[in-house]
Amino acid sequence: MQILSASKNCEVITPEMQISTAFRSCVAIWHDLCNGADMPVWQIDNLLLFPAPLVPYANVTRWEPALNDHRFLFWGSGRTDMMKFDYTSKPLSELKPELYADLVRSELAEVLKVGKPMISSAQVRLSDGTETQVDKVRLPFLDDKENVSTILSIDDVRQFLQRYYLSWARPEPATQ
Questions:
Q1: Domains and CATH numbers, the chain
Q2: Which of 39, 86, 88, 97 has its CB 3.0 to 4.6 Å from that of 80, i.e. a possible disulfide?
Q3: Sign of the CA dihedral 83, 66, 107, 27?
Q4: Does the model's pTM come out above 0.70?
Q5: In 109-157, where do the E strands start and end?
């Protein structure tokens, strides 16, 4: 199974926007973490505050200027179980296929630029002729008091668990 195309739509989440209860809960937690500031500072312990059923399907990326790429700081265990690999500590440039990595990179850049919680909805067309929707909430964080560089991305778990096509992302076995 291959991804043939993927188109995205990122929007800043507003109070009147129709989003899932789970996503609304994540945005509320993010706002609580702000504690009066425009944006919260990232700490790995923040993950413990988000709904436990969502965290295994989440990932955290950080923009690294020296690398000129995003790096995965966290790759949830549910993602690893389903996709059969773990991207923790790997750069986004290693995500396959490249078409999908480019879509993710574009979304992450948009979230870092805007500095607000965003909902991302991608339409993915697969080589078997089917299309699927991939929704996630992306929450920006400061890495210190000034630099917006970290993003917590939380998938719609129902969609994630139905992504039978994720085998495209599994590395090919080594040949001898």
A1: 3-48+57-169 (3.30.450.20)
A2: 86
A3: positive
A4: yes
A5: 118-126, 131-142, 148-155
